[in-house]
Amino acid sequence: MTTTLTRAGSVHSWDLSTGVDGPGTRFVVFTSGCPLRCLYCQNPDTWHMRDGKRVSVDDVVAEMSRYRRFIEVAGGGLTVSGGEPLLQPAFVGDLLHRAKALGLHTALDTSGYLGGRATDGLLADTDLVLLDIKSWDPGRYRRLTGVDRTPTLAFARRLSELGKAMWVRFVLVPGLTDDPDDVEGIASFVSTLSTVERVDVLPFHKLGAAKYTALGLPFPLAHVPAPDADLVRRVREQFARHHLPTT
Ligand code: SF4
Questions:
Q1: Could you write out the DSSP letters of every residue in 122-159?
Q2: Residue range 169-182, pLDDT digits in tens
């Protein structure tokens, strides 16, 4: 008898979602571990790889296969999210490859900070990249995330040159990411990319605040309100003026 060993990775959880993590109904795998510390992060329980559950690619594929017909009928697929999936590029690459082999649409949800770790092979198995561009101003980006924005912009350009479809995601936080010049910088940059299908302006919310409490951590934006409808409209219009479809 022969035994096939598949790669293992650190995974926080998986779930089904519709509408936000790619087209159709998605089987979403949340990997553990992230090098960023976004002030508005709603998933601080995914920050450390050591806190995840060690599972094999076979384990994930077996679970995903239970929903395969449902996902196919709903025009969906697999989305690998996090945490930051590209912290575990070999595991994630195998996962995407197996999903493609099953004929499923695949999406990768990433900050782009570790885009250099995504091989061309991994990207060949990825139909869509959900790319977060969190701020344009380099200092603000660093204050918001703890890291430099340069790798994300380089990854965005590479995806564009490869012809890889992207949904750009931007979290709108009053007083933090709503500066008109900052939004304009992102919109101008994104409009130079050739494969962006849409820009999702995601209003900041505090649904993850309880996770900070459970972890004994302060939620840095506890005092910040959600953006009002006028602000969300203004920012969406800024992107729309650059002929970018927005949601
Ligand atoms: S990149 Fe995502 S998971 Fe990582 S800290 Fe930022 S919001 Fe949280």
A1: HHHT-SEEEEE---SSHHHHHHHHSS-SHHHHHHHHHH
A2: 999 999 999 999 99
